[in-house]
Design brief:
With 298 residues, the protein is α+β, with helices and mostly antiparallel strands. It has helices at 13-21, 100-106, 111-127, 206-218, 284-297; strands at 22-24, 37-42, 45-49, 67-72, 75-81, 95-98, 138-140, 146-149, 155-157, 161-170, 179-185, 196-199, 222-233, 240-249, 263-270. The structure holds zinc ion. Zinc ion is lined by residues 131, 133-134, 136, 149, 151-152, 154.
């Protein structure tokens, strides 16, 4: 079990720190300067120097097409979409490419959040080149992470998908520590014991999405729903925002039932006997689980 003294506290101190250091933005009012931060993306990975040194705009060719990301501690940061790393200068520098999960696990905040935005913005631009209404070409709007169709005027902002996840607890039937509901998914990291989660539907509140997902995925009802915190998530495509909640099982004697398609298992675990295969330390899933364990000890 994770030592709660080393785990991120409720709400995630990592991203609280990020809010101070990294400010998202789309300011093109001044061109990239040599010392600005550079985040080149190839495919679904971010390129960095092999020695971990932050890349600067001067490290890449002068004709690079830069996209504004915002500022990190006041320094402008720029991303670019590289079809291939072959064109990069000075291979002797060494280049390393990492997906966001690896980055988030290895790179300190707020750089991991900045890297997540780089991947999300570049992925969005790559998949939003043409107008969905008239097939015209989309062009960038100054100062916004948005595009407009030159032919019909359609406005195409970068949109976030909201998803919820919930740590559900119940009193132990044996009077010992409270129990936490954990589930295993049929796809993705199938060995992990994770939380019930799902995307928010149009026309739904975050809270309603929690109730619906819990009902659909494990057939339970919950109450005492409390908002916990949120995390930008750069793994599941562009622009996912995770919102975490805690809740109590409405019926402490009800057992979860999985559909066998989305989930393969769902099980109550004593807070003093959680499995080892838990979500990674940089995820809000893990912050929720660790906070639930800490709260259960009080
Ligand atoms: Zn159009």
């Amino acid at each position: 079990m994770t030592d709660p003294t080393t785990a991120a506290p409720p709400g995630g101190s990592a991203f609280a720190a990020a809010a101070d250091g990294f400010l998202p933005g789309a300011d093109r009012s001044r061109p990239p300067a040599a010392g600005d931060l550079a985040l080149p993306v190839t495919g679904a990975k971010l390129l960095g120097s092999a020695d971990g040194r932050p890349l600067r705009v001067a490290d890449l060719p002068a004709d690079t097409d830069w996209v504004p990301l915002g500022t990190l501690d006041g320094i402008p940061a720029w991303a670019t979409d590289l079809a291939t790393a072959d064109a990069l200068p000075d291979r002797a520098l060494g280049w390393a490419s990492l997906g966001w999960a690896s980055l988030a696990a290895e790179v300190p905040e707020p750089y991991a959040t900045l890297a997540g935005r780089a991947l999300a913005v570049i992925t969005w631009r790559r998949t939003h080149r043409w107008c969905g209404a008239c097939r015209g070409e989309l062009t960038d709007l100054p100062g916004e992470t948005a595009r407009r169709c030159a032919d019909c005027g359609l406005y195409v902002p970068m949109q976030l998908s909201a998803a919820v996840l919930v740590a559900i607890t119940r009193p132990s039937p044996t009077g010992r520590a409270d129990e936490l509901l954990l589930v295993r998914h049929a796809t993705g990291p199938t060995g992990l014991w994770a939380l019930v989660a799902g995307f928010v539907e149009a026309g739904e509140t975050l809270e309603a999405a929690v109730h619906r997902e819990v009902g659909e995925e494990v057939g339970l009802a919950v109450d005492r729903l409390v908002y916990f915190g949120s995390q930008p998530w750069a793994i599941s495509g562009p622009g996912v925002l995770l919102a975490g909640f805690t809740a109590r099982a409405a019926d402490p004697h009800a057992e979860p039932v999985v559909d066998g398609e989305e989930l393969t298992q769902a099980q109550w675990f004593g807070l003093d006997a959680l499995p080892a295969e838990l979500p990674p330390a940089y995820s809000i899933s893990r912050w929720l689980i660790d906070a639930t364990v800490t709260a259960g000890r009080r």
